[in-house]
Amino acid sequence: MSVLLLGPRSDPQLAAVERTLETRGVETCVWDADDWPGSGMLTYRQGDQTRLSVGGTSVDEVHTAYLRNFALNPRLPEYRDDLEDHPFALLNQLREYQATLESMLYSLEARGVRMVNPLETQDLHTRKPWQLERLAAAGVPIPETLTTTTPDEVRAFADRVGKIIYKPVSGGGHAAVLSPDDLEDDRLSLLANSPVQFQEYIDGEDIRVFVVDGEVVAAARIISTELDYRTADHDVERIPLSALEPAIAEAAITATDCLGLAFSGVDVIDTDDSCSVLEANPSPMFAAFDDKAGTDVAGALADLLATPTETDSTTA
Fold first, then answer.
1. pLDDT at 313 over 60
2. Average pLDDT rounded to a whole number, residues 282-302
3. Structural domain tally of the chain?
4. What is the CATH number of the domain that holds 194?
5. Helix 128-137 vs helix 246-258: angle between axes, to the nearest 10 degrees?
6. 91 and 233, same structural domain?
7. What is the signed CA dihedral for 148, 151, 155, 161, rounded to 10 degrees?
8. pLDDT tier at 311, thresholds 50, 70, 90
9. What is the pLDDT of residues 91-141, one digit of tens each?
10. Which neighbouring-strand residues pair with 4?
11. Which residues pair with 45 in a beta bridge?
12. 230: confidence class by pLDDT, cuts 50, 70, 90
């Protein structure tokens, strides 16, 4: 029985999990997204028996799949030239790959292969309003949030809440503090182009919590002077699990569970007397935390992936 790893082999997360599984003697099968579009061969044949083949190799005796990343986003740097030269052809090409791969994964799942995480959860971090609604319904503390294209809604929200930040609804960009100039007509009129997410600003420490199979396995403090730490160099500092505030651990576990995830990276703002969850990512980056802060998320994830479930079935 083996573990299927789907994602670019160049991705530090996938590479770390593959190394960890191999050192433990666990057989792996990699669907290398670096090969798509291009030399990577895909075959999905129906008939007397469904057959799946990737890279010329049949998918056989897989019990668990780790879905890291399809790497089929046209905004990725490697697609820049094609997007400029023939955008519609590129979008169609990537859509066809995505449809084939998703069909393969649904076929595996129907035959009992465990998905970490399930395919339907992979886009949760790009549907932030819906994710936040589900978190709030589960009792997870979240910032007050508004997603809108309506200028008057933004002004009313700012008047009531005070300091707020704004960011893209589906991710892929950075957060910024809403300034008085942003509330002018010429700026707010740009909302007609696209919805934007506005959120109560919460002053506190950025904490990343990793949850695997219902337990917190690692936590780290992100040290940065920037509002959005991704915009500049920053440090990470491991938080011993014994020192993690129980309220933060509980919020991270509840967030992961209510979203149907077996593995997540939960972003939390820790204030003096409370915490607030920003999001739970179904396929988080963790290699930098392991490298810089000394966590072992790769090890905890490998433990989950290597353990067959009671409902395993052989696939072919």
1. no
2. 97
3. 3
4. 3.30.1490
5. 120
6. no
7. 10
8. low
9. 999 999 999 999 999 999 999 999 999 999 988 988 999 999 999 999 999
10. 29, 65
11. 51
12. low
- Considering 180, 200, 220, which residue would you say is the last residue of a domain? 200
Bridge partner residues of 58 (DSSP):
53
- DSSP, collapsed to helix, strand or coil, labels residue 52 as strand
Phi, psi of 235 (to 5 degrees): -110, 160
Q: Which residue has the tokens 């668990």?
A: 64
| Angle in degrees, CA 65, 68, 71, rounded to 5 | 125
Q: Which of 199, 212, 204 is nearest to 132 (CA)?
A: 199
Q: How long is the chain?
A: 316
223 contacts 236 by C-beta, under 8 angstroms: yes
User: At residue 112, what is the residue type?
Assistant: G
- For residue 48, being part of any structural domain is answered with yes
pTM of the shown model = 0.92
Continuous H helices in the chain: 12-23, 80-85, 87-110, 128-137, 151-161, 185-188, 246-258, 287-293, 297-306
pLDDT, mean over the chain: 92
Question: Would you state the structure tokens that stand for residue 21, as one six-digit string?
Answer: 């599984």
Residues 87 and 160 in one domain: no
Residue-level pLDDT at 275: 96
DSSP 210-270: EEETTEEEEEEEEE-SSSSGGGS--EEEE--GGGS-HHHHHHHHHHHHHTT-SEEEEEEEE
In a shared domain, residues 128 and 243: yes
Q: Tell whether the model's pLDDT for residue 312 goes beyond 70.
A: no
Hey, how many other C-beta atoms are within 10 angstroms of the C-beta on 180?
8
Backbone angles phi, psi at 221, to 5 degrees: -95, 130
Q: Evaluate whether residue 34 is within a structural domain.
A: yes
Q: How far apart are CA 183 and CA 151, in angstroms?
A: 8
Domain containing residue 215: 124-140+203-282
